[in-house]
Structures are given as C-alpha cells and as structure tokens.
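User: Reviewer 2 asked us to show a designed sequence for the structure in our supplementary figure. I'm pasting the structure tokens here. Could you produce the per-position amino acids so we can include them in the response letter?
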C-alpha cells in the first residue's frame, strides 16, 4: 500500500490547478494520477485557440495550454503518475489499473477531477448501421490532433452546442467538409450568431428542429442519414456522423462507490467547499456537471486548494451539510450540498434542460422561501443567491422549475 497526503485523480485543468495551488501553499506530498499517457486532460486534443486568456493572459491552443499547465506542475516537482486508471475507491483505498497490474494508494485527501464526456451514439438510441465513422467530437479531435488521421471527408454533425462548432472548425482545419449540422431543438443550443456564421461564411447548412432517425449504409461505410421534421423524412448524403455535446460527468465509478449518489446530476453530491458526502473526498471541474470552460475548471481547482488546506488543518471540523435536491427539469446544478460551516453568497448554479420561461422556486422542508423569474436557454447559467433562508443541518432544500 502506497501512502500519500493528497491524491488527485485527473490531470486536466481542474486537477492540475488544484495540485499547483496546493504546492504554492507549501504542500509537497501530492500525487496526480491520469489514465492517459500524457497529462493535460481534454485540451490536449482541442487544437484550436480559445484557452488561457484568464489564467495566463495569453490566447493559447488547447495542446499549448495543456503543456503549459503540465510544465508548471513539473517545475513544482509535482509527481504525475500516468497510465494509472482509477478503478475502485471502496473503503477509501484508491485502486489503479496500470501496465504493471493493480496498484493501491491510501490518501488523507482525494480529489476527483475526472472530467466529463459527450453522450455517444449508443446512449442516444439512434437506429441504423454500426460503423467506425460514427463518433463523438472528442474522438474526432483525438484522430486529428493526437493521431494525425482524418477518418472521413463529408460527415454530418449532430447537436448545436458550442462544442459542435468546435467540431466544425477542427474539421475544416483538417480538410473535412461538414455536410450539415443537425439540431433537434428549434433553436441553436449556443449563440445564435453561430448559425449565420456557419451558413454564410462556412457554407454549412444548419438544420433546426430535425431528429436524426437512422444512419444508413453497410457495416463499413456510412452513406447517408435520414432526418425528419414534422413527420417528413429527408436524406443527407454523408460518410460519417459526429455526435457532439450533451456532456455527462465521467462518473460511472463514483456511482458504484458512493452510497449517496446524486442521480439528478449524474455525479456526487458536492458542497460549496467541493467536499463530497465522504469528508476525505473532494470533486472539482467538469465531473460536477456537463462541460464548462477550462478556465472555469482551473479557477475551481485553485479555490478547492484552500478548502483542502482547511480540512487538513482542522481535522475535527465536521461538515454541516444540508442537501439540495432539484427536479427533473434541471439539467445540472452545483453545489448540491450547503455546508453551514462556510458562508456562501450562492446557493447553487444551474442550467435548465430545455428553453424555459417560468419561475425557479426554492423550498426548505417543503415551504417555499424564494422564487426567481427566468427566461433561459439550455446554456444560460442561472445563479440562485443564498438568501438568509433559515436552514439547519437535517433540513432538505428543494429547487423546482415551474413554466
Ligand atoms: C471539443 C472541445 C472543445 C473545447 N474548447 C474549449 C475552448 O476553446 N476553451 C475552453 O476554455 N474550454 C474548452 N473546452 C472545455 C475544456 O476542455 C474543459 O472545460 C476542461 O478540459 C475540463 O477540465 P477538467 O479538468 O474538469 O476535465 P478534463 O480536462 O476532461 O480532464 C479529466 C482528466 O481525468 C482523467 N480521468 C478520467 N477518468 C479517469 C480515471 N478513472 N482514472 C484516471 N484518470 C481519469 C482523464 O484522462 C482526463 O485527463 C472544450 C472541450 C471540448 C470537448
């Protein structure tokens, strides 16, 4: 059994910034683990510019940003154990699968910074053929930026989140012509200007309100997709399909290992101190929700370091958690625990799962204590302020959406 004071799982922006900030505070017994063979997380395969402005005051590409973070960690002598996949955390023992077999660690504090992933085709229940040319944006970026390979020439993109336009830009840079962007909703799931940008400047049609009903071809090749709107089918010729966005936390392992798992969020319950219901485990970055930007995850990591410092210095400090629950109209929310030990201006941050005009209502033990009018899209960040709700440790706070 290896022992370490602080174990951080995930060498992306959230995990590395936590490690760097803890090192700045004087901690030197920190080990970061990652299943990949290089550190840096998702930005490693995002070859476009768009990273680093707030962290380093420089506009960087994803790979340069990942390298910069990794170099800072290396300069601080932070150990990064690569090719270590966390496979179990039962009884607080961290078990990693490595090329040398299973390796076990115990840590005083563990940070889960596992990131999020896009929902693949299998989970979207789209019928039709199987083909290697059906993939997520993340997989496409890996082909292009890590393996220097172009898997197809003329695919469609399904989805219209910001990441879908990242897939569009990466494709164009690699010489791939996108046949169309297909979105089930009647509006774009990101900034509306991206539609005219795609259609006029990039000559890529954006088809709103269309469902993808089947992927056609044979076992090897995609030949077309069938899309439908108001019961009328249309066929688009293409040689691949990129399922983009619809991010979900990388949390399968956590679901198995946490008694109290937040199924509404598909993640662990988390306080404003990033502490889970197991006081030795913290979670940070996109594992808390779908994908937000790298700088958001970076700054969360920096904030988390202070809470870990507190918890190590005040071993006797017991969390005073009040659970926050949310209804099914809420796409994700965090924090999902209010720790009464810490003051907080925000009760929680959330997003809705469809375009909504209505009211967000907060209740404590089923009595409504706060409401707020909203006119929100799926990518609108909503903050619920922590008003002076009188709550005590065993209360339940519920958030519901009425449209
Ligand atoms: C296509 C695309 C384009 C993007 N473009 C931008 C942009 O332009 N600007 C921007 O600011 N953000 C962008 N983002 C978002 C940004 O990449 C993420 O916000 C950021 O990487 C999240 O950081 P993280 O540390 O939470 O997770 P990640 O960066 O995903 O890191 C998680 C790490 O955990 C590791 N891991 C997961 N499970 C295990 C396990 N069981 N054992 C060991 N290791 C594990 C993974 O290997 C990974 O290295 C983009 C994202 C995508 C997908």
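Assistant: Here is a per-position design you can include in the supplement:
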């Amino acid at each position: 059994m290896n022992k370490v004071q602080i174990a951080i799982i995930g060498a992306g922006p959230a995990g590395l910034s936590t490690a760097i900030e803890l090192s700045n505070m004087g901690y030197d017994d920190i080990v970061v683990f990652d299943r990949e063979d290089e550190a840096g997380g998702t930005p490693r395969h995002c070859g476009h510019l768009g990273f680093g402005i707030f962290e380093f005051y420089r506009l960087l590409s994803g790979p340069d940003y990942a390298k910069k973070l990794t170099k800072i960690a290396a300069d601080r002598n932070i150990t990064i154990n690569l090719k270590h996949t966390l496979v179990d955390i039962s009884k607080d023992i961290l078990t990693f699968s490595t090329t040398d077999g299973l390796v076990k660690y115990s840590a005083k504090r563990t940070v889960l910074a596992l990131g999020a992933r896009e929902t693949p085709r299998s989970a979207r229940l789209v019928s039709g053929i199987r083909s290697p040319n059906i993939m997520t944006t993340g997989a496409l970026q890996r082909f292009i930026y890590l393996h220097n390979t172009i898997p197809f020439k003329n695919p469609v993109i399904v989805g219209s989140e910001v990441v879908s336009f990242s897939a569009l830009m990466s494709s164009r840079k690699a010489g791939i012509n996108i046949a169309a962007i297909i979105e089930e909703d009647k509006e774009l799931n990101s900034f509306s200007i991206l539609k005219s940008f795609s259609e006029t400047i990039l000559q890529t049609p954006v088809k709103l309100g269309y469902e993808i009903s089947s992927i056609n071809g044979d076992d090897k090749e995609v030949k077309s997709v069938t899309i439908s709107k108001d019961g009328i089918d249309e066929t688009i010729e293409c040689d691949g399909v990129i399922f983009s966005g619809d991010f979900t936390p990388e949390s399968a392992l956590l679901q198995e290992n946490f008694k109290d798992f937040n199924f509404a969020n598909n993640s662990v319950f988390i306080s404003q101190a990033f502490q889970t219901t197991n006081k030795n485990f913290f979670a940070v970055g996109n594992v808390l929700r779908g994908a937000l930007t790298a700088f958001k995850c970076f700054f969360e990591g920096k904030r988390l370091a202070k809470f870990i410092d507190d918890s190590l210095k005040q071993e006797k400090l017991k969390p005073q958690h009040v659970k926050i629950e949310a209804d099914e109209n809420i796409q994700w929310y965090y924090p999902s625990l209010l720790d009464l030990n810490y003051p907080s201006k925000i009760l929680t941050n959330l997003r809705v799962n469809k375009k909504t005009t209505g009211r967000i209502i907060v209740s404590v033990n089923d009595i409504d204590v706060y409401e707020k009018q909203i006119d929100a899209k799926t990518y609108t960040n909503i903050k619920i302020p922590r008003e002076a709700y009188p709550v005590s440790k065993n209360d339940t706070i519920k958030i519901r959406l009425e449209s």
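For the response letter, you might also mention the following. The pocket of flavin-adenine dinucleotide is lined by residues 9-15, 33-36, 41-43, 46, 50-51, 85-86, 113-115, 137-138, 141, 163, 166, 250, 253, 285-286, 291-295, 297 (CB under 6 Å). The chain has three domains: 1-118+246-319, 120-243, 322-403.
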